[in-house]
Amino acid sequence: MIVAGDGIQVDGAGSPSNPLVITAKPAPLVVADSSCITLSGGGTTAAPLIAAPRLDPALGNLLACGPGGLLVAGGTGGAVATGCGLTGDGSTGAPVSAAVFAWPHTCSLDDEGGLVYCDSTGALRSEPRGRASFMEDGVNKTYPVTTVPAAANTLIETRSLTIKNPDLCRPAFVIVEVELDVGFTLPPNSGASSQIGGNAVNYFDNRGSGVSASVHSTATMVFQRTIAPGATLVEPLNIRMGRGSGGATYNRIETYMRAFVFVL
What we know:
The chain is mostly beta strands. It is built from one helix and 19 strands.
């Protein structure tokens, strides 16, 4: 007795009139589609098995099936069209990159070069641009004839200049220049001094026999300030006098305040 196994078919009784015939018995072909491949056909001559790619119909899918196989829609073959500031086609030999110039300075690019950023709209942005500004205020004021105080460092008046940092990102470096000119009248054997803040800048005396009127000289001081991003500084100019003697008086105070603002 002969028993056929899987895939084998046995016919006949094994006699001369009914010989034993052993043939292959084809197993049924079971196929299933995957997420990217669709299968069709039964695997026969009349209905061959065909595998076809499944193309996602979603908007933005650039793959298409052409007579020569899969391709990128538009026929660019994967090349990238570049615009201003970019070079290359995206291939291994010509990767997409920024079109840059050679670093022209002797210092290190790694240490001294600025940075580039991407803003909320996807546009490239450089570091904030440098700024420079200038402001000034001048006052020439007359007074009733007033005796110069004998005590040193006597505060007479405070004037000020408002200085704003226009940059919201970086601190400002400020050079402040102030000028003071006081008009004194000096009788014989008198004297008087003027000060910018705590700094005595002028002292005049009259050792002659007549009155010296409109005695004056312009004194200047320069100093540095730093202002935080977007902040405002009110810079004071404290006008002081002292060492008044012999009936010395003043009747005019002229000042200038200037600010040179740099944000780099």
